[in-house]
C-alpha cells in the first residue's frame, strides 16, 4: 500500500517537471539543458483521417495506449487532428506523466489549405480555427511543436500552393509572439516528392522574414515500406552519421488502419490492443540504439536558405501573401480566436463576410495583449497559380537522397520507415 502511494507520488513529481522543448541552432533541446532531444515517436490517430476522432480528448483511449508508448520507449507522438472545442487536460497530463511530448498538426480535412485553391482556402475563418488550436494547446509544456500543414505539395505540379502554407506558418508564429505564448516550434511536414524535395525544404527556410521561415521541417519518407518492417534504419537515424542534421523521427503509425501500416491492432469495441510484428521490431531497434551523446554535433550558426528558382518542377512565388485582414484582430492578440471543432469547413470562406476587412481596432481597447509588430503589410494576397488539383499521389519509392553531411538550417525530422524526420535545417550545399 505504502509502496504504491510512493510510486504514484514519484510520478506526480516527474509530471510537474516536464520541461518544454526548444530549438537551438538546428536541433531540439530540453529547455535549460545541454542535452539534445531526439524524437522517438509514432504517429497517433486511431480511426484514421476518414473517421475523425480526437485521441487526446478521450481519457480511456489515451489510457489504453500510453502503456504501449512506454513499452516502445517513446518520447513523442504526432497527432494529425484534434477537436479544438474539446478538453485535453487529462490526456496531456497522462502523457506528461509518461514523459511524452506531442507534435500537433493544426488542420482538419475541411479546415485546411486546399492544394487546388490556396488563395481562397487561406482566409479569416480558417485562421480563426488554426489559431484557436494553437492557443488551446500552448498551455501544455509537453506540446512540442505544431505542423502548419502536411503534404499540401504532393507532386511537381502543386508547388504553387507553397506561399499560402508559408503564410500560415508566419501567422502562427506571429500570433504566438504577439500573444505572449511560449515559443513553440512551428513547421511543415513534407511529402516525399523526388522532383522537388530539396526545393521544398529550402523554400520553407528561405527569405528575409524570420517569422515566415519554419522552425522545424518534417520529411515523410516512403522508403522501407515492407511488411513487416524491420526498422533497421533506426540505428542510422540515431547515429552521428545523421544527428548533425536530423533530430530523430516518428513512425507511421500506431494503430492499424486500412493501409496496414500499424504497430498495433485495436479491437472493434476499442477495448483491447494487440501488437503486430512491427511493434516488436521497432521496440527491439529502439532498445538497442542509444542516442548520440551530448549535442550530437548539432549546428548552431547556420544561415537560412536561398529561395529556389522557378523551374518546371518548382513554381512557388517567393512572395508570401498578406494575411487576410479580418484575421488581424486575432494575430495582433486583440481578440481570442474561437474554434468550432471537427465540424469546421473553411476552404470556401474567402467570400465570407468580413474576410478582408480589418476590424482589429474595434477590439483593441479591451485587449490585454501587446501590440503587434505589424504582422502583415496591407494589400490583398497575390493571386494564386492555382495548379490543378492533385489527388494524384506521387509516392516515389526511391530512397531518401538528401545527404545529411552538410549544413541544414532548422530542425530536420524524418518518418521512420515511413520514418518522419525532423529536419532542423536545410541542406545548403
Ligand atoms: C513547465 O515548464 C516551466 C519551465 O519552462 C516550469 O517552470 C514549469 O514548472 C513546468 N510546468 C509543468 C506543469 O511541468
Ligand atoms: C525556457 O525556460 C526559461 C526559464 O524557465 C523561460 O524563460 C523560457 O521562456 C523557456 N523557453 C522555452 C522555449 O520554453
Ligand atoms: C472506436 O474508436 C474509434 C476511433 O479510434 C471511433 O471512431 C469509434 O467510434 C469507436 N468505436 C466504438 C465502438 O467505440
Ligand atoms: C516558371 O517556369 C515555368 C516552366 O519552366 C514557366 O512555364 C513559368 O512561366 C515560369 N514562371 C515564372 C513566373 O517565371
Automatic annotation (TrEMBL):
Under which EC number(s) is this enzyme classified? 2.4.1.-
Question: TM segments?
Answer: 407-428
User: Locations of Low complexity compositional bias?
Assistant: 366-398
Where does the signal peptide begin and end? 1-17
Q: Name one GO biological process term.
A: fungal-type cell wall organization
Tell me which Pfam families the record gives. Glyco_hydro_72
According to UniProt, the name of this protein is 1,3-beta-glucanosyltransferase
Amino acid at each position: 500500500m505504502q509502496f504504491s502511494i510512493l510510486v504514484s507520488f514519484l510520478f506526480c513529481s516527474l509530471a510537474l517537471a516536464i520541461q518544454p522543448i526548444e530549438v537551438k541552432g538546428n536541433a531540439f533541446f530540453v529547455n535549460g539543458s545541454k542535452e539534445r532531444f531526439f524524437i522517438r515517436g509514432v504517429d497517433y490517430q486511431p480511426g484514421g483521417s476518414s473517421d475523425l476522432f480526437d485521441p487526446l480528448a478521450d481519457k480511456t483511449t489515451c489510457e489504453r495506449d500510453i502503456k504501449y508508448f512506454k513499452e516502445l520507449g517513446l518520447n513523442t507522438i504526432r497527432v494529425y487532428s484534434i477537436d479544438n472545442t474539446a478538453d485535453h487536460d487529462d490526456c496531456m497530463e497522462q502523457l506528461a506523466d509518461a514523459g511524452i511530448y506531442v507534435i500537433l498538426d493544426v488542420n482538419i480535412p475541411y479546415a485546411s489549405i486546399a492544394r487546388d485553391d490556396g488563395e481562397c482556402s487561406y482566409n479569416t475563418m480558417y485562421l480563426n480555427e488554426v489559431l484557436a488550436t494553437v492557443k488551446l494547446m500552448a498551455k501544455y509544456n509537453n506540446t512540442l511543436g505544431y505542423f502548419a500543414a502536411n503534404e499540401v505539395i504532393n507532386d511537381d505540379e502543386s508547388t504553387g500552393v507553397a506561399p499560402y502554407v508559408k503564410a500560415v506558418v508566419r501567422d502562427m508564429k506571429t500570433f504566438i509572439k504577439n500573444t505572449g505564448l511560449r515559443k513553440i516550434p512551428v513547421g511543415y511536414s513534407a511529402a516525399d516528392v523526388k522532383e522537388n524535395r530539396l526545393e521544398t525544404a529550402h523554400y520553407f527556410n528561405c527569405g528575409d522574414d524570420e517569422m515566415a521561415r519554419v522552425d522545424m521541417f518534417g520529411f515523410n519518407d516512403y522508403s522501407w515500406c515492407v511488411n513487416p518492417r524491420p526498422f533497421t534504419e533506426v540505428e542510422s537515424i540515431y547515429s552521428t552519421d545523421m544527428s548533425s542534421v536530423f533530430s530523430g523521427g516518428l513512425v507511421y503509425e500506431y494503430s492499424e488502419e486500412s493501409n496496414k501500416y500499424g504497430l498495433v491492432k485495436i479491437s472493434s469495441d476499442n477495448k483491447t490492443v494487440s501488437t503486430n510484428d512491427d511493434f516488436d521490431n521497432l521496440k527491439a531497434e529502439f532498445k538497442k540504439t542509444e542516442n548520440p551523446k551530448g549535442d550530437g554535433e548539432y549546428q548552431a550558426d547556420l544561415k537560412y536558405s536561398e529561395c529556389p528558382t522557378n523551374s518546371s518542377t518548382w513554381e512557388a512565388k517567393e512572395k508570401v501573401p498578406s494575411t487576410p485582414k479580418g484575421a488581424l484582430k486575432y494575430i495582433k492578440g486583440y481578440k481570442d480566436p474561437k474554434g468550432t471543432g471537427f465540424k469546421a469547413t473553411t476552404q470556401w470562406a474567402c467570400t465570407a463576410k468580413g474576410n478582408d476587412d480589418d476590424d482589429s481596432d474595434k477590439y483593441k481597447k479591451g485587449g490585454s495583449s501587446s501590440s503587434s509588430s505589424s504582422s502583415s503589410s496591407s494589400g490583398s494576397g497575390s493571386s494564386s497559380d492555382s495548379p490543378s488539383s492533385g489527388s494524384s499521389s506521387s509516392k516515389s519509392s526511391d530512397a531518401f537522397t538528401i545527404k545529411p553531411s552538410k549544413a541544414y538550417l532548422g530542425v530536420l525530422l524524418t518518418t521512420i520507415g515511413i520514418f518522419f524526420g525532423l529536419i532542423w535545417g536545410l541542406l545548403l550545399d
